[in-house]
């Protein structure tokens, strides 16, 4: 429907992906006191984030993205994100990539649904952008790309009317239709029900520009108010939201789109496993992983066993087939974008196969590279 | 005032589109038809009044290409004319018209779609049957197409193009009281909250234009009853205007989120409003011709938990029963008066 939806979809999903990867990379961080050469793990986390953000905000890529176009199919978009996730030394296997994508899409679906006004989708996007800017604040070259993207967003979206934003929102909701994957952080915070549907509160502040329901005013022919009636609104509304800032800086007011993983405590079992890994690795020479084989592997689950189990038990209807993009007429635009993305990945191609990739194999591979 | 009845299950869920439910009551056959849009398809369910028989049909958007999303349906609605009922589907590609049971397509009108994608979306939205023989459909450019519909057969012709609105049409409504005394026959609403009031005929005549004062105004649903325009806005407000003069009769802070659907039961003056805030509200309108005033009172609330409502319609002219659809919901929820 709306031909201006893709940039918002991409930036917000990308933002969620970065939050999740950042949290998982930190969870797999080796604490300084437990491993001798811990610096390179911390550096590599920053390097992974920088590499992905650099690819995400590549000038040519964004130019293509911001052109008026219909939304990609779910498969095509998934492929773009597969490429993006592998734009660095990090490697994810199939199950982890599936889980990452589930988390990203359900998070953004939640944000779109709960936006007080359709226009607030832009504030949600700015929340993601603000966080991305913070990830790369020490890297001037990437920072300037991010700033440029802010400008493009402001230029393209701030003149739109609320009706045009609602069309964008409706387009996004059609894209997310019938997705009810349960996300543990949402279930825990009681924003999602056990049937996968989100909780829509009938309480709290009303959007900026709306009045709390309850008042009927009737007027005479010359505009004078002649009668007032109150009615019970059935909810528990508490006030009106202030308007957030639509500029490069400023308070966004809306909390949707900020990093909800920031205060998540890491799993103690995973931590123990990683500590053991650190002890094994601590005895090796520091070798900056330069080639793809020794890529730093990230597990989206708490343990490898959980990851493997998730892959086996994943319901068919949730599987994403990573398809080969054919440059047929219909998929021309998709192909173009994916090709540009492919030029920037360290290793062009599909993510790692789902064959068992145990810790032992990784270490051996690393040793081979010494 | 109302209690929940058994829901009707659909083959797929409802999309988040304005006015996403249409109801056609077929008294001679003791049936009610319901249509709900899901992306590039329309779910049609026919329900017998005894609650025992349900049958389903799905209609596809013409020129639907499964791989892309470029032929999404924006709205589906029945147009009730004296001699026949026509089911109209409006999409990004054009306008499809079917016999009332959806079995035969009788007319197809393609929209002018530009060769390369433009920033401005192209689609048709807003459907109304006007007087004896017209079906009007709105376009994203702001134009409105007037089709002349014969008593039977497929010789439907485009009679006129009305160019008054500058923004996308959101909804159209025709005078539903059945009274022939009303001067205004149709009202149209657009993306920037402007309302136009029309008289039908060989050439449709613009009677009045009601501009919106508020900057953030957006009217998603509109009805016309006994010369009164009832408009539902994105801010959650409902406003009542006198159609031909634009005088504001009433303003209601009705909902906490975007209003997605309005409906009027013409025999009783009951008004139904539904919004993204999960609430359906029933109101009552009373006209006092002597004082030229219109009163609105609140009657009833129904909360559809955790649902952003996208369609709500009365199932009969008295408002004895109504039905509701919600985003991501695969059922049509029904309520009847106790």
From TrEMBL, chain A:
Name a Pfam family for this protein: Oscp1
State which residue ranges cross the membrane: none
User: What is this protein identified as?
Assistant: Organic solute carrier partner 1
Gene (name only): OSCP1
Supply the PANTHER family for this chain: OXIDORED-NITRO DOMAIN-CONTAINING PROTEIN, PROTEIN OSCP1
One cellular component (GO) term of this entry: plasma membrane
Look up the coiled coil feature and give its residue ranges: none
TrEMBL record, chain B:
Domain annotation WD repeat-containing protein 54 beta-propeller: ranges? 1-338
Q: Which InterPro entries match?
A: WD40/YVTN_repeat-like_dom_sf (IPR015943), WD40_repeat_dom_sf (IPR036322), WD40_rpt (IPR001680), WDR54_beta_prop (IPR049546)
Give UniProt keywords alphabetically: Cytoplasm, Repeat, WD repeat
Q: Name one GO biological process term.
A: ubiquitin recycling
Q: Name one Pfam family in it.
A: WDR54
Q: Name one GO molecular function term.
A: ubiquitin binding
Listed under GO cellular component are: cytoplasm; nucleus
WD repeat ranges?
A: 252-293
> Would you tell me the protein name for this molecule?
WD repeat domain 54
What gene is this protein translated from? wdr54
